[in-house]
Recover the amino acids of this structure.
C-alpha cells in the first residue's frame, strides 16, 4: 500500500511549502470579494468545449504511449488508457507524484510484463513531453510579441524582456544538451561505452579498499547500467522512423490541444482577450511552474503560473486569477473522476498500486 515513507513525507512537506508560498504570493494583492464577484459573471458554458478538447489531448497521449510500448508489448487502446488516467488521477490526489510510478505499475500488473521496461517507456513518454514543451517554448518566446517596457513585479522578482531573452537562450541550450544525451543513450554502441565507464568508476577510488569497490560495482554501478539499458528499451522506437515521427507529431498535437482548451475557456471570461498563441504561452508557463514540488493537484503553483503568464499579456490580476482557478478546477476534477472510474473498471486497488520494490 502507499505508505508515508521518508521520501513521501519530504515530498509532501516540500510541496506544502512551495504551494503555500505560491498561493500567498499569487493572491495576497487580489481582493477576495472582487474575485468572488468576478467568478459569478463567467459564462460557464465555455467549459464544455474546453473539456472536450482537453480530453482529446489525453486520447492523443494514450495513442503515443501505445507506440512507445510496442518494443515491450503491443497494446490495445483501453489497456493503455486506464493506466494513463489512473496515473494522472493519483498525481492529483496523492503526494510525491506517485502517478508517475502508478501508470507503469498498473500496466505491469494487468499485462504481466517486466516492470522496469514499462517504467522506462513512461520515462520516454515524459521525454517526448519535454521535447515538445521546450520546442514550443523556444518558438513562443521568439514569436509572441512582448511589450519592451514590460516590468511585472512578482514578490521580489521582476519579469523583464531581458530576463525572458536570457530564459530563451538557456532553454535552447538545455534542449540541445537533452537531445544529444538522449541520442547517446539510445544507441547501443555509445551506451556500452557509458556502461563500461560506470562499471570502472569504483577503480578510480584508489583510497578505498577492494571489497568496498567491488560491492559498489556490484550494487550501485550495476543498477545504473541496468537502468540505462532498460531506459533504452523505450528508444527502440527510433528503429522505426515512422513511429518516431508519429510520437513527435502526437506530442506537439496534444500540447496544442491543451493550449486550445485554455484559449476556448477565455471566451467565457469577461476582460480576458488574448490570442491562441498567448493562451498557449500561458499553458507552457503553467507547465514550467508545476514542475516544482507541490501538494497533490499542483494547487498554488498552477495558479501562480497562470496568473503570472496572463499578466504578461496585460490581463488584470483579478481576471487572471478567476480564469486560472476555473481552468484548474474544471480540468482537474474530471481527470480524478475518470481515473477513479478506470480503477473500478479494471479492478485496481489504489492503495496497492505501487510495486514493493519501488517504494522508498
Amino acid at each position: 500500500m502507499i505508505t508515508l515513507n521518508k521520501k513521501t513525507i519530504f515530498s509532501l512537506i516540500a510541496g506544502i511549502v512551495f504551494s503555500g508560498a505560491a498561493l500567498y504570493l499569487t493572491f495576497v494583492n487580489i481582493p477576495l470579494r472582487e474575485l468572488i464577484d468576478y467568478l459569478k459573471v463567467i459564462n460557464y458554458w465555455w467549459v464544455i468545449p474546453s473539456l472536450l478538447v482537453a480530453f482529446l489531448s489525453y486520447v492523443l497521449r494514450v495513442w503515443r504511449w501505445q507506440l512507445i510500448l510496442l518494443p515491450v508489448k503491443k497494446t490495445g487502446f483501453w489497456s493503455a488508457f486506464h493506466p494513463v488516467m489512473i496515473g494522472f488521477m493519483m498525481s492529483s490526489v496523492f503526494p510525491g507524484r506517485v502517478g508517475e510510478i502508478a501508470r507503469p505499475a498498473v500496466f505491469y500488473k494487468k499485462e504481466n510484463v517486466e516492470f522496469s521496461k514499462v517504467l522506462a517507456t513512461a520515462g520516454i513518454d515524459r521525454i517526448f513531453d519535454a521535447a515538445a514543451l521546450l520546442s514550443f517554448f523556444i518558438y513562443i518566446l521568439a514569436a509572441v510579441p512582448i511589450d519592451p517596457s514590460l516590468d511585472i513585479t512578482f514578490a521580489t522578482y521582476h519579469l523583464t524582456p531581458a530576463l525572458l531573452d536570457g530564459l530563451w537562450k538557456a532553454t535552447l541550450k538545455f534542449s540541445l544538451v537533452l537531445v544529444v544525451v538522449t541520442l547517446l543513450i539510445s544507441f547501443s554502441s555509445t551506451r556500452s561505452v557509458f556502461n563500461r565507464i560506470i562499471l570502472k568508476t569504483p577503480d578510480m577510488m584508489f583510497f578505498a579498499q577492494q571489497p568496498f569497490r567491488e560491492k559498489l560495482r556490484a550494487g550501485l554501478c550495476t543498477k545504473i547500467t541496468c537502468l540505462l539499458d532498460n531506459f533504452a528499451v523505450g528508444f527502440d522506437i527510433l528503429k522505426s522512423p515512422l513511429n518516431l515521427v508519429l510520437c513527435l507529431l502526437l506530442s506537439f498535437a496534444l500540447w496544442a490541444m491543451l493550449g486550445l482548451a485554455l484559449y476556448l475557456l477565455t471566451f467565457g471570461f469577461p476582460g480576458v482577450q488574448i490570442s491562441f498563441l498567448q493562451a498557449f504561452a500561458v499553458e507552457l508557463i503553467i507547465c514550467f511552474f508545476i514542475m516544482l514540488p507541490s501538494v497533490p493537484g499542483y494547487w498554488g503553483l498552477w495558479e501562480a503560473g497562470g496568473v503570472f503568464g496572463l499578466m504578461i499579456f496585460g490581463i488584470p490580476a483579478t481576471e487572471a486569477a478567476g480564469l486560472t482557478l476555473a481552468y484548474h478546477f474544471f480540468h482537474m476534477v474530471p481527470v480524478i473522476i475518470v481515473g477513479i472510474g478506470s480503477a473500478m473498471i479494471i479492478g485496481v486497488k489504489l492503495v496497492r498500486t505501487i510495486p514493493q520494490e519501488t517504494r522508498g
Observations:
- The CA atoms of residues 137 and 284 lie 7 Å apart.
- The first helix runs from residue 6 to 27.
- The chain has one domain: 6-358.
